[in-house]
Amino acid sequence: MITLAVETSCDETALALYDSEEGVIGDVLLSQAKVHSPFGGVVPELSAREHTRNLLPLFDLLLKKTSFDIKEVDFVSFTLTPGLILSLVVGVSFAKAIAYTFNKPLVPVHHLEGHIYSVFLEGKVEYPFVALIVSGGHTDLYLVEDFGRYRFLGGTLDDAVGESYDKVAKMLGLGYPGGPIIDRLAGEGKPLYKLPRPMLDKEDLNMSFSGLKTAVMNLLRREKEVKEEDVSASFQEAVVDILVSKSVRALRETGVRRLVVVGGVSANSRLREEFQRVSEEEGFELHIPPLRLSTDNALMIAYAGMERFRRGVVAPQDINAEPNLPLEEFGKLWT
Ligand code: KG4
Ligand code: ZN
Hints:
Layout: E1 2-7, E2 12-19, E3 23-31, H1 33-36, H2 44-66, E4 75-81, H3 85-102, E5 106-110, H4 111-117, E6 129-134, E7 139-146, E8 149-155, H5 161-171, H6 178-187, H7 210-222, H8 228-254, E9 258-262, H9 269-282, E10 285-287, H10 291-294, H11 299-310, H12 327-334
Parallel strand pairs: 1-4, 4-5, 6-9, 9-10
Antiparallel strand pairs: 1-2, 2-3, 6-7, 7-8
5'-O-[(R)-(carboxyoxy)(hydroxy)phosphoryl]adenosine is lined by residues 10, 135-137, 162, 165-166, 177-180, 183, 263-265, 267-268, 295-296.
């Protein structure tokens, strides 16, 4: 079975063709980072405009690159939720147009579910497992009992971790997206500054990152002669400490010994290193996608779409994009 997958929830326009037997046929992706960089974050209207402008040329490129006849596709997978509503609408409309034109079924995917299943593109993970999703919009821990059965364990009460990377980068005048820049600078600096680890002393699995961001702002106001490398390293150490500690606690509380770490921030080199070390020390199984599958892409949407279609789930042609449907609820509705 072959699916065409469409992903436009934020600032990446991405399409993929995936075969359940043969694997990846091909994928294309266009990042809008340059468009949003002067603003230090994603501008929703610009994002939707760019998706509209780029989807058709990317679709042509995908078909040309793979010499694939679109009539051979069995169904169309697409990101239904969550994301920037205007951007989602562009992708959903495109998916509907292709499905309608070629008379193919439509299969909805939750963006976070896509991230979770990005690790399956490299090899299956046994159920149950704990998933830490760390992206520009989310920082959540889930217990994944099966495909579509997601139990929320805890998450950030304020900023998402990727968002705090981007905001700290903006404070330092480093550009967007801030995560990869801070990651690189941190490697050249030392964690000299003591920054708070909010909620680490709390027994639950919730987290908070806005206080950490404010602490960085106060540090920059207080100290005139700071090196951005050292600020980056200090901020990153605090982030890694929070994410690793809460994930280990989630494994202990659920009694599960498999952890999946996904989403844009899972590309972080220090986070990967620390999770690797702790997984060996604590003896749990660790799965992190390769870098190109950590950040937004359409292959992860294709994989999750394939799992859903296999279970017989198909959406009506008049389905509409949703800005923020929780993953747990989505799983119950569509599985
Ligand atoms: O999953 P993603 O591509 O899009 C969303 O669904 O939000 O995640 C994007 C986020 C951005 O905030 C970006 O700064 C962050 O992932 N990011 C990183 C790294 N690469 C991307 N954060 C830390 N270290 C990185 N290497
Ligand atoms: Zn994402």
